Amino acid sequence: MLFEMVKNTMMAALGAQEMLREFIEGLVEKGQLSESQGKTMLSDWSEKITSAGSGININISELIDMVIGKMNLATKEDIEKLNKKVAALSQRLAAYEDSRADAK
């Protein structure tokens, strides 16, 4: 669901960028903007989109972390800690079983 929202947002941004490009090209063709003004506007728009995209990535990452935290899901670090504990317990159990076998 979150992926779809992000995807739709990015597609809307790309669609808006394409529409703006076509609009500016139309203004240039009609002589209402010079070619250099059109290029400047497109360049400014692209820079704003790029910087906004970086901000979106950061915000999405923070949102995902927050949602995972609220869902009380195990993180990669939590799973790694548990794997180490299981490995240590497995070694202790094997040593205990070996000592019991030697005692018989």
UniProtKB/TrEMBL annotation:
The highest taxon in the source lineage is Bacteria
Q: Which organism is it from?
A: Candidatus Magnetominusculus xianensis
Return the protein name.
Answer: Polyhydroxyalkanoate synthesis regulator phasin
Q: Give the UniProt keywords, A-Z.
A: Coiled coil
State the coiled-coil residue ranges: 72-99
